[in-house]
Design a protein that fits this description.
- The protein has 284 residues and is α/β, with parallel strands linked by helices.
- Helices cover 35% and strands 13% of the residues.
- Strands 3-2-1-4-5-6-7 form a seven-stranded parallel sheet, sandwiched between helices.
- Helix 1 packs across helix 9.
- The longest helix has 21 residues.
- It is globular.
Length: 284
């Protein structure tokens, strides 16, 4: 895997655009061969236009799933992801809108089922972050926006999806290494990621009788549009270099974990978190 380090300065704003990134992230390895692990499945992925979400969508497609992607306003990125899914021979729906709105979350679930016939896999992946080194600089408005973006939609989508999910369905949530070790400049973000861990564990217990599995993935520093849209200067240049592996990770190194959790290979796994962070040892 090519080392990702010494990133150049680049002008991006939240939530970030993948086609403006330097270097471009790797979405799927050339030597990743699908084995029909998700053949005939239908997946809904929030934040599916770019980064980890895009990589999940393409990996799911290569494994045989049709996908629906929810995104905010990154039209060009979303179109590129759809083209990549279609190139794998699978269907792809795009839903543009604001996940902070419960009505939109309900809509993407109902429209996925209407257009693709069912829903087997729900991936809650969308998130935003706003670094602040001083707690006094974190405004009430920022806290509310971070929580409304990063955790509220998990409730909205799961509640909307439950009546339609059958035995063997899978819900996969994207948390973060910051939920476990904290982050001195991402207090509100890491707080939402901690909430996602608790949400995952509690929902897994609540839904286990329905034979629905709920798990999570906790990425460390991964090269996605959120990074150049968030960090500047040395924080960007040295992004990921403090991991034991000494580099940031690629989306292509994260998405296969979602394939595993969505497939029958993980049929006896629920309430768990897979840590993909370049070697940082995490308890829990």
């Amino acid at each position: 895997m090519k080392k990702l380090k010494n990133f150049p300065e680049q002008k991006q704003s939240q939530p970030g655009i993948e086609n403006k990134m330097t270097p471009e992230p790797q979405i799927i390895r050339q030597d990743y061969y699908g084995s029909q692990k998700l053949m005939g499945k239908v997946a809904l992925i929030t934040g599916g236009d770019s980064g980890i979400g895009r990589s999940i969508a393409v990996h799911f497609a290569r494994e045989g799933a049709d996908v629906a992607l929810a995104y905010f306003d990154e039209n060009e990125d979303a179109k590129t992801t759809k083209d990549m899914v279609n190139a794998e021979g699978r269907k792809c729906l795009l839903f543009k809108g604001d996940l902070k709105k419960e009505t939109f979350c309900k809509k993407i679930v109902s429209k996925t089922i209407e257009k693709l016939g069912k829903l087997d896999i729900l991936v809650n992946n969308a998130a935003m972050q706003f670094p602040k080194k001083n707690i006094a600089d974190i405004t009430t408005e920022q806290v509310q926006k971070t929580f409304k973006t990063n955790i509220f939609p998990f409730f909205y989508t799961v509640i909307a999806a439950i009546p339609h999910l059958k035995k063997g369905a899978s819900i996969i949530n994207t948390t973060s290494v910051t939920a476990y070790r904290g982050s001195e400049h991402l207090l509100d973000y890491s707080s939402t990621k901690g909430a996602i861990v608790a949400f995952t564990r509690s929902a897994s217990l609540m839904l286990v009788e329905k034979k629905i599995r709920v798990n999570a993935v906790a990425p460390g520093p991964i090269w996605t549009p959120l990074i150049p849209a968030t960090f500047r200067g040395e924080d960007l240049k040295k992004f990921g270099q403090d991991t034991p592996m000494g580099r940031a990770g690629q989306p292509s190194e994260v998405a296969p974990a979602y394939v595993f959790l969505a497939s029958e290979d993980a049929s006896y796994i629920t309430g768990q978190v897979i840590h993909i962070n370049g070697g940082e040892i995490i308890g829990g």
